[in-house]
Specification:
heterodimer, A: 115 residues, 11 strands, B: 111 residues, mainly beta, six-stranded mixed sheet, five-stranded antiparallel sheet
Chain lengths: 115, 111
């Protein structure tokens, strides 16, 4: 099993450009998440999908959109990139028990720079 | 604001010693707690999870939870240089889905 995979690994954008970060999991998990990690800020939740067909905003959703394409795939779109969106983006997934010990597993990350 | 607080470190321990990492949380509704290890330039890797008061042991790792004091800790016995990493503490809130992460404690194990 590959676990959680993300593409691309690295990306450089110019301000105003758009792009989509792709995430897929092969663990038959119900829930998927997008986080960003910035120095001194820790990991912050952007959006999550508790189950196929649902999405909800996290702590920092502005400037992003998401699509839960199917049970396996959850994409994050930046419509008009800004330098403040320079960050490392992690996708994660979990069984989605909504109870004790719903453990989240992370993908390798996408390192995005917006110039 | 639901916060998870960790000392940023670095915490330096000699090889073979016990490393003690601590975390406090503000949301009394938090049910479960997780410790992740993150090497520089890599993604977080889950190493321990706990939701009941008391201790939970897995190999060289022991997680301790005290809900009355809103305190979580991770003990690493027989620390190795390969344990040198940043350790992230996380808790779940009432929704059961979102994780609140601390900013992490940097651990350095010296040979």
């Amino acid at each position: 099993n590959a676990g959680v995979t993300q593409t691309p690994k690295f990306q450089v954008l110019k301000t105003g450009q758009s792009m989509t970060l792709q995430c897929a999991q092969d663990m038959n998990h119900n829930s998927m998440y997008w986080y960003r990690q910035d120095p001194g800020m820790g990991l912050r939740l952007i959006y999550y999908s508790a189950s196929e067909g649902t999405t909800d905003k996290g702590e920092v959703p502005n400037g992003y959109n998401v699509s839960r394409l199917n049970k396996r795939e959850f994409s994050l779109r930046l419509e008009s990139a800004a330098p403040s969106q320079t960050s490392v983006y992690f996708c994660a997934s979990s069984k989605g028990l909504a109870g004790p010990l719903d453990e989240q597993f992370f993908g390798p990350g996408t390192r995005l720079t917006v110039l | 604001q639901k916060e998870v607080e960790q000392n940023s470190g670095p915490l330096s321990v000699p090889e073979g010693a016990i490393a003690s990492l601590n975390c406090t949380y503000s949301d009394r509704g938090s049910q479960s707690f997780f410790w992740y290890r993150q090497y520089s330039g890599k993604s977080p890797e889950l190493i321990m999870s706990i939701y009941s008061n008391g201790d939970k042991e897995d190999g060289r790792f022991t997680a301790q939870l005290n809900k009355a004091s809103q305190y979580v800790s991770l003990l690493i016995r027989d620390s190795q240089p390969s344990d040198s990493a940043t350790y992230l503490c996380a808790s779940t809130g009432n929704s059961g889905y979102a994780l609140n992460f601390g900013k992490g404690t940097s651990l350095l194990v010296t040979p």
